[in-house]
Amino acid sequence: MAVKVQGMQNPLGNSPLNAVRTDSGRSVPMDRRSFLKNSLIAGGGALLAGREIAALESSLPQQAAGAVSPPEIAAARFPKDFLWGTATSSYQVEGAWNADGKGESIWDRAAHTPGKIRDGSNGDVACDQYHRYKEDIAIMKQLNMKSFRFSTSWPRVLPNGTGQVNQKGIDYYSRLADALLEAGIRPFCTIYHWELPQALEDRGGWPNRDLASYYADFAAILAKHLGDRITVWAPFNMPEDFTRNGYGTGWAPPFKSNIDQFLKAAHTVNLAQGMAFRAIKAASSKATVGSAYGMEPIYPKTNSEADRAAAARIHNYHNLFYIEPAFHGTYPKAFIGEIPYEVMGFKSGDEKIMKVPLDWVGVHYYVRLIASDTSNGVPPELSNHDPFAQTRIELANDGPKTDGGLEMWPHGLYDMLMQVSRDYNHPIIEITETGGVFMDAPGADGRVTDLRRIEFYRQHLAELGRAMKDGARVRAYHAWSLLDNFEWGSGYTQRYGLTYVDFTTLKRTIKDSGLWYGRVAATGRLDV
Ligand code: FCB
To answer: Among 249, 296, 515, 321, which Cα is nearest to 406's?
Structure first.
C-alpha cells in the first residue's frame, strides 16, 4: 500500500513529515498508515518520526489498548487548574496564503506542485482561520478551553525570511492573541511549525548554519511585538520530523534525500533552539520557553541484546535528539559508531549555544514504534536506510486502528511520560498534541456522532491521569485538533478535528467529541 509520489515513499501519512505515523501524512506522499507499512519495508527510513522508548523492560508492550477499566475511568479527576486545550498550526488552518504581504513558504511551493498532495489540494484557503479566528475562538470558549496552541507563519511576518517585517502579519497574530485573552484562553505560540520561507530554502535551507541566526531574529521579533501578551513559546514543532523528512528521506518539503544534509539540518536546528531561547527571553521578561517534541515510545522487536540496543538508538535519534542538546549541550548516542560531528558541521563551542534550561517540555504522542537491529545486514527491500543508526523501524500493529490506519495504543502515552519524567528529573510537561483520524460526517440531523473519537480521548486521558498520579508533572493537554484541517501530504482526506469543517462552505459543526471534551474541561472528569 505504499503510495509513491514522484518516486518517493512517504511514510507518514498524515502529515508529511512524520514518517512514523501512518498515513496521515506529511508530505506529500503518503499517509501515515502507508508509511508505516512501508517503513516496515523501509527499514531505516522509519526513523523519521521517531519516538520511542528504548528501555522498556520487555520486548513488546503487554498492555492492550483500551485497557483502562471503567471504574478507573469513573474515578479519574484532573486538577481544577489543569489547562485543557486544542492545537492547530498556521499552514493547516489559516489559509490567506498570499494575503496582506505574506511571502511564499516551502509548503506553499509543495502544495502548488502537481502530484505532491494526495487529493491535489493545497492550504491556500484551508479553514480560513485568518479571517474566521473569532468564530473559532467562540467555539473554544463554548468548549471551556483554557489554552490554544497555534503557530506563526514565518513568511507572513518576514516574507523573505530576513529583513523587512511585514507589519500586517504581526498585526494578525496580535489580534489573535488579544481575542484569545479576552476569551480567557492562554495563547501558546509555536514559532515554527514547518513553514520555512521559500527564500531561505533557496539559500540552502536548514542545512545552512546561517539559518540559526535568521531564525533567532524571527523569534526575537515575535517576542518583542507579542511578548507582553504571549508568555508560552515553543520554538519548534517536531524538529525530528521536518529535519529528517525534509532533508533525509525526501518525504516532506523541500524533498531532499541525503542523510548528511539531514544531520546538518538537525544541528542547525539545535543551535537555533538555543539561540531562540535566549533571544525570546531577552525580548520578553515574561517568556517561558519549552518545545514541542514528537515522542514515540520505541519497543525492541525481540528481547535480543541487538534489538534492545537498536531501540535505544532510535529513542535517542527520534525522541531525544533535540531535548538532550538543550538540557545537556550534548548529543545522545543515536549511532552505531561515534557521533559524526564533522558531518553535522559541529564546531567547538556549539555545546554552549545549544544548552538552555527549557522551562517545560512539550510532548506529542500518536503511535508507538518497534525497532530492530540491521547492523548485520540491511534487508534489500529497505529504502532510506540510515547508515548511522542501522535500525529498522516498524509501526506496531496489535491494537485497533483509526481511520487513518494508525494503531491506537493509549498506554504508550503513559510509558512516554514516565520515561521523560525519569530521564529529565521530572520537568513540567505540556501535552502538545494527541489525536486520531475518524472520518465521521454530519448525519441527517446535522450531528456528528464520532463516538470512536470520544473513546480514543477517554483512554488517552485515562493514561495521562495515571501518569500524573505516578508523578508526571503534566499541566496541560492539547487535543489535535480544534478543527478538521489540511493534513499535509494527505490534503483534506484525514479528519482530526473536534469540530467538523465543510471545506466547500467552511461551515464549522462541533462534533459530539468536541462537546464531550468540553464537559471534561468543565468537570475534570472522564465519565461525562
Ligand atoms: C503532528 C503534526 C500536526 C498534525 C498531526 C496529525 O505530528 O505536528 O501538524 O499533522 O501530526
So the answer is: 296
Q: Is residue 17 within 8 Å of residue 27, measured between CB atoms?
A: yes
Q: Quickly count helices (H) and strands (E) in the chain.
A: 18, 16
| Three-state secondary structure call for residue 397 | coil
Measure the CA–CA gap between 192 and 105, rounded to whole angstroms. 12
Least confident of 8-17, 84-93, 381-390, 459-468: 8-17
> In angstroms, how far is CA 162 from the centroid of its own chain?
25
Indicate if the pLDDT at residue 505 is higher than 80.
yes
Which residues approach ligand 1 with their CB closer than 6 A?
A: 14-15, 18, 24, 89, 92, 237-238, 294, 364, 433, 480, 487-488, 496
| Cα-to-centroid distance, 420 and ligand 1 (Å) | 20
Strands 4-5 and 8-9, by their bridges, are antiparallel
Which H or E run includes 481?
none
pLDDT above 60 for 351: yes
Ligand 1 centroid from CA 14, angstroms: 7
Q: Look at residue 301 and tell me whether its pLDDT is greater than 80.
A: yes
pLDDT in tens, 447-503: 999 999 999 999 999 999 999 999 999 999 999 999 999 999 999 999 999 999 999
Distance (angstroms) between ligand 1 centre and the Cα of 380 equals 31
Residue linked to cell 489559516: 94
| Cis previous bond, 400, omega within 30 | no
